[in-house]
Design goal:
InterPro entries: Quino_amine_DH_bsu, WD40/YVTN_repeat-like_dom_sf, WD40_PAC1, WD40_repeat_CS, WD40_repeat_dom_sf, WD40_rpt, WDR86-like
Organism: Psilopogon haemacephalus (coppersmith barbet)
Number of strands: 33
Distance between the termini: 22 Å
Structural class: mainly beta
CATH topology of one domain: Lipocalin
Number of helices: 2
Largest sheet: 5 strands, mixed
Pfam families: WD40
Radius of gyration: 22 Å
Strand order of the largest sheet: 1-30-29-28-27
Protein name: WDR86 protein
Keywords: Repeat, WD repeat
Length: about 400
């Protein structure tokens, strides 16, 4: 438990720290965005660099990869779209007046959030700004997107004709301590979610359940009804800023500056696990097949058994903070401020975890049969045999 792992490959092509790592929907490529002002495209088949995107005049803050196009945003106030096959810059989106922190691609829309206190919506193909969302009193750090069709009943929908045409909504989190929900078509603010007393650093959306989760420098996670704007629960046990969130099967994982990750049951608000061993802030999270992978300011990535909280492996080799991680085809990818992309073989962990899950399911199956007999036998005296819920 907790043994150290060595990277199967170290990619050192960037000349500056890597701020973000994006995996294409088909899993064939990775995109890295760097402090050196460039982005690089990597094949997951051979781990080689197959594209070098140059043109930004300052460092890249964030990147997003589709199957055929790549998007990068920068401290030079612009967003760029790239052809993944040729490396050609296809579009430059200009309009922000400060650092662009985050981008999000949804349908034919490109959304962006900036230090200029605005979020903006662009036409992906026409290189044109469609909408500006103005109302935050400080910089916009994080974004989420959904359609009202996913969450609203017909009789709940807005009556304005222009908003009937496009029911898309944008969610923005800001250092002004608020979360805002906007109609994309009109730019009008639909909801302002008040409650946080610190900057909102991360958002995660569960549209089918009408829920939004926000993590903040006030040490809390809050969950909101995105139709009514009602604050549903406050998760309070962290002792530092909440930096990253991951939602899997109604389990919420939160990484914090207090050097821990916590797992919460969304439906009850109960904290059911704490993952320790980090020597610095937890900067990024990724859940994969019962394993929780973390990246930290202590330059290590870690793998935990998500249910028991047991540390299964430490991945050492980076020199500075790990900013982003991805998992694909039993390989772990870690991108760091030291400028390297490291690739780790996690087949051993995955196999052990699959065997463990198989044994647990088998035991639960046997337990279910025994439980049925026990309930039948004890029915007259009102006894119920409780079975543990699986993740």
């Amino acid at each position: 438990m907790g043994n150290s792992g060595s990277a199967v490959k170290v990619c050192t092509d960037h000349q500056g720290g890597i701020n973000w790592l994006s995996l294409s929907p088909d899993g064939q490529r990775l995109l890295t965005g760097s402090e050196d002002g460039t982005a690089r495209l990597w094949s997951t088949a051979d781990s080689q660099c197959h594209g070098h995107f140059q043109g930004h005049e300052s460092y890249i803050t964030f990147c997003h990869l589709e199957n055929e196009a790549a998007f990068t945003c920068s401290a030079d106030h612009t967003i760029r779209k790239w052809d993944v096959m040729t490396g050609q810059c296809l579009a430059i989106y200009r309009g922000h007046t400060s650092i662009v922190n985050r981008i999000l691609v949804a349908k034919d829309y490109l959304f962006s959030g900036s230090y200029d206190r605005t979020a903006r919506c662009w036409s992906v193909d026409k290189e044109k700004q469609i909408q500006e969302f103005r109302g935050h009193r400080n910089c916009v750090l994080t974004l989420a997107h959904y359609s009202s069709r996913d969450v609203l009943e017909e009789d709940e929908e807005e009556e304005e004709e222009e908003e009937k045409v496009s029911r898309d909504l944008l969610v923005t989190g800001s250092t002004d301590c608020t979360v805002k929900v906007w109609w994309v078509s009109s730019g009008r603010c639909y909801q302002t979610l008040l409650g946080h007393t610190g900057a909102v650093l991360c958002l995660i959306l569960d549209a089918p359940n009408r829920e939004l989760f926000s993590g903040s420098t006030d040490y809390t996670i809050r969950t909101w009804n995105i139709v009514t704007g009602e604050q549903l629960k406050v998760f309070k046990e962290h002792q530092g800023s909440v930096i990253c969130l991951e939602l899997v099967n109604r389990h919420l994982y939160s990484g914090s500056a207090d050097r821990t990750v916590k797992c919460w049951l969304v439906d009850t608000g109960e904290r059911i696990q704490t993952y320790k061993a980090h020597k610095h802030s937890v900067s990024t999270l990724k859940y994969h097949a019962g394993i929780l992978f973390t990246g930290s300011g202590d330059a290590c990535a870690r793998a935990f058994n998500s249910r028991s909280g047991v540390l299964q492996k430490i991945f050492r080799g980076h020199k500075f903070i790990i900013n982003c991680i991805q998992v694909h085809d039993e390989l772990l990818y870690t991108a760091s401020h030291d400028g390297t992309l490291r690739i780790w073989d996690i087949r051993g962990i995955c196999k052990r975890n699959k065997r463990r899950l198989k044994k647990e399911r088998s035991a639960q199956g046997r337990g279910s049969q025994k439980g049925s007999l026990s309930r039948l036998f004890n029915n007259k005296v009102g006894c119920m045999v409780q079975q543990e819920n699986g993740e």
